[in-house]
Design a protein that fits this description.
single chain; mainly beta; 14-stranded antiparallel beta barrel; three-stranded antiparallel sheet; elongated
Length: about 425
């Protein structure tokens, strides 16, 4: 158990270290998908490593010994208090018909705590997690001709960071053995930054630094439900059906534009225009799925997601004429095997194994081409003597297409989640 706690602390320290680095703008070599430059970033999936190993969201994966962000209804079924977090290491190999570029991205995702107010009946969750993330770096070189005898060459370096995050506190209520419901209000806040640095080859031109920052916050809410049915085909099987809906989020945001100038040999940030206010609207999200447990050792899941990005609106981040937001559809199918429940002494029987496939249509359409992704995944669960666990997942994905229009991305991802569980607030019994 102490090893699990140590790893959890390391993950949490990594979370705050990365957040500090992002605020200081020193993550130059930590870049993700080029497609995150549109809108307010790319939608971020907060599935645990266990759920990623199955290739699913986790909205129907009923487990009383661990937590999940995907379905608020599950928080009322917990027997233990839990603390969970994780990180992901990804490599993006982006290529078109003429060039290839490799980016690596180390990122932390969610942080969640759950507490049973009344064991397996009523529970509370507190979490901090991203909704969208923008993390890219784009170079371009340009030549202009101010006159027939004058040529100016310059390089533009554009960095994107930030996105939309939520701080959420919610309740789950296990009404009876068949029905559970949940409600999760949250404070959603947006901090989206685009920084453009222009370098000139000619000595007569100084380097320009232009920074665009969008900020705002608002109230958000989501709901969840979970249905359980037992003894369908035999005495030991059961079926879980889960669903969750996140209502649209609308920000009254503000955009500020500033430049970095050198004044008296010192760099100073100068605001070049008055702040511009506008609305940004994120769409509704629907998640649903089912998990069938034919026995205590195997479960099979099929889940889907709909995000209506065609309803996305932004007064502050206009899209190019050839780019539009489109509804995102995602489907995943996975299977999990629990040999540790056989109480075998064999080494390979001490773990939990999973695998899955999924398809993601994406939320972007560029020149009438969807930026979709195909995923293959595998997972490994490492169980301690207590209900705590460490989960690893390995994913390989293909996104977009190598053409004159789109960029093909080959994605390798390794995710780790640490789930600590404890019996808390239990009154000791004395003889």
């Amino acid at each position: 158990m102490e090893v699990f706690k140590t790893i959890f602390i390391i993950v949490i320290l990594g979370l705050f270290t990365q957040q500090a680095a992002a605020q200081e703008g020193i993550s130059e070599n930590n870049n993700g998908s080029i497609y995150s430059l549109f809108g307010v970033g790319q939608p971020y999936d907060n599935s645990t490593a266990r759920e990623m190993g199955l290739g699913i969201l986790g909205v129907s994966l009923d487990n009383m010994q661990s937590n999940t962000l995907q379905n608020p209804a599950m928080w009322g079924k917990n027997l233990y208090s839990t603390a969970s977090s994780g990180f992901k290491l990804s490599q993006f190999t982006a290529e078109d018909q003429s060039t290839e570029n490799v980016n690596a991205l180390l990122e932390t995702g969610y942080l969640q705590f759950t507490f049973p107010l009344y064991n397996q009946k009523l529970g509370i969750s507190a979490a901090l997690y991203p909704v969208t993330k923008s993390n890219f770096r784009l170079f371009s070189s340009t030549t202009v001709y101010p006159s027939d005898e004058d040529t100016v060459n310059y390089i533009s370096d554009v960095n994107g960071s930030g996105g939309v995050n939520k701080f959420e506190v919610g309740l789950g209520w296990n009404i009876n053995k068949n029905i559970a419901v949940g409600y999760a209000p949250s404070l959603a806040f947006i901090t989206h930054n685009n920084t453009e640095t222009t370098f000139f080859e000619q000595s007569g031109y100084s380097t320009n630094n232009l920074d665009r920052k969008i900020t705002g916050f608002t109230f958000a809410q989501r709901f969840g439900t979970l249905l359980n049915f037992r003894s369908l085909l035999n005495n030991d099987d059961r079926l879980s059906i889960g669903a969750a809906v996140s209502l649209p989020i609308e920000f009254e945001a503000k955009r500020e534009v500033s430049v970095i100038k050198e004044v008296n040999n010192q760099e100073q940030e100068v605001q070049i225009s008055d702040p511009v206010e506008g609305n940004i609207k994120l769409p509704v999200e629907l998640n649903a799925g089912l998990t069938y447990y034919p026995s205590n050792f195997v479960n099979v899941s099929f889940e889907g997601q709909l995000q209506q990005w065609s309803n996305f609106e932004s007064d502050l981040t206009p899209l190019d004429a050839n780019v539009k937001m489109s509804d995102r559809h995602r489907f995943g199918l996975g299977i999990e095997y629990h040999p540790y429940r056989l109480n075998s002494d064999k080494f390979l029987s001490r773990f939990r194994y999973s695998g899955g496939v999924s398809y993601d249509s994406g939320h972007l359409t560029i020149e009438n081409h969807d930026v979709d992704t195909y995923w293959m995944s595998a997972g490994l669960g490492i169980l301690s003597r207590s209900p705590s666990s460490i989960d690893l997942s390995f994913q390989y994905g293909l996104r977009g297409a190598s053409s004159n229009i789109l960029v093909r991305e080959k994605i390798w991802a390794l995710s780790l989640s640490v789930n600590l569980t404890e019996r808390m607030f239990v009154r000791p019994k004395f003889d």
